[in-house]
Amino acid sequence: MKRILLFILSTVLFCSCKRQVLYEEYDPIFKTGDNVTWAAKNLNETGWRQERGSTGRQVFWIREKTELIANSGGALGLQVIAFGAYEIYWDGVKIGINGKPGSPVVDEIPGNETIILPVPDSLSKPGKHTVALRSTQFSYPGVQRNVGVKLDTYVNLIRRPLLISSLMFIMAGAFLVASLYYIFLYFNSHKKQYPVLIFSVICLLFFSLLITEYLKFYIEIPYPKFFIRMEVIGWLTFSISLLVPLYFCIQFGIKRKYLLLCLLFGVLLFIYISNYGHYDLSAIYYSRTMWFTMLLIAFDAVYRKQKGSWLLMTGILASAGMNYYLLYDFGIFIFYTFIVLAMLYLHTIQMKKIEQEHSHSLLLSSRLQLELLKKNIQPHFIKNTLTSLIDWVEESPKKGTEFIQALANEFDIMNAISEQSLIPIRQEIALCQMHLKVMGFRKEINYEWEDNGIITSATIPPAIFHTLLENGITHNTPQDNGTIRFKLSFTQNDDFCQYTFETFGKNRELQADRSGGNGFRYIKARLEESYPGYWQFSSAASPQGWTSIIKISNKLK
Questions:
Q1: Which fold has domain 381-556?
Q2: Where are the domains of the chain?
Q3: What pTM does this model have?
Q4: Could you report the per-residue pLDDT of 497-510, keeping only the tens digit for each?
Q5: What whole-number distance in Å separates Cα of residue 523 and Cα of residue 546?
Q6: Helices and strands (H, E) in the chain, number of each type
Q7: Cα-based distances in Å from 444 to 295, 379, 474
Q8: Is the N or C terminus of the chain more exposed, i.e. has fewer CB atoms within 10 Å?
């Protein structure tokens, strides 16, 4: 995008400096009526007015004198910018028509807002000339826009707008590609980042603004439709002026950003209402308001030493200097390009941070896998289990065999799931049931398991319910009937699905806060690994023992 910007800037400067036709333009004069002799080059202009006045459905004439000083470029061309349907005369000779003027009883065929015509060589000698328009304006008769006449070589009048617009369309294509890329990135990311979505929308608005602004050189727009295009451009500029500060407020963590944005929206709305109908002026005020707001944001970010703040500040100040020397239509799009470059830089910083967090999560996941295996082969666990196994083999060989089989099954499942990020819920339940069987032999306590509403196809991070089960065994004593019961329930609605793990037993007296133990840290880390930002975990004592709840948002799907 930097190369595109430099190429466009150099081309614009080159085009603006290359001037082949020198002329002087005078103010137009108006007269209501219809007399073909008013097209003459030399005419007594007594009674002609400086203002058009109300014309209704009448024919009116416009005369504008111009003095051609020099032409070193070739065939002369004439560009007329005016509302209405009109015939164009050059020194009394009709050289073209834009639309078809009407009459009090016949409707006009509206012309375009701008027309370009060649001037015959025999009439394009240096000296004073007269451009006369026989015109009607049945649509928007109360609107009196300025009449503009521009002289240049016919080739330049045709080619220069096409050259500039083609370059702007290249820039628009870059904005469109960026918009599509980041919208796909947003919707295909596990963790939705609103700045990415806002950036995509801003790029799409930039694309739409460029297309709407420069499409006039490729399609004919009758003057009654002129204000539709201007209204679209105005609302696009309004939206950009609001969303760009919002993006930087979020990226730089601006305090009271919503208050600032509400004030900005109020100012933009005031500009729209107070300057309604003055579309160019409104767009300039929108852009200046956005520029001033961006300057405040940049000052705050620089003061707080935020990364990328100096880049934004430099771009804002550089754009102000550039707009001083360039036309608004060119300067504003260069300013927008600076903004996008600053946004891309901030986004790369954010992506680097996310990549670092992802690498950290991978390391954490590997460590969790190792801890999961270590937790079940700790020396004291093996020692206590083997001691219980010896006792059972001596007292009841049959029960001892069951004990060995249950222990083997638990280790098999643990080895199978240790390197996976998600496992079938039924495999997790089987692990819990095997563990209860092993612990039943070890502690000689009756453990009961119950599950309700479980969806067989569901998946879950490995050993999170197993961890809750171990906490229940460790921190609870049997009920009066000598049992500890565990129940896993599943419910869901349009927003989230919920797992409820309940322990029915007597809570031991707490020696420390259970919310910060290694087991809970393991559960939270596993949930964040598989459902980043889309989960909730709570665990607290209940009248029957202990209840833990895991909620997983359906938005992740």
A1: Heat Shock Protein 90 (3.30.565)
A2: 21-156, 159-356, 381-556
A3: 0.63
A4: 999 999 998 887 76
A5: 16
A6: 13, 18
A7: 72, 21, 14
A8: C
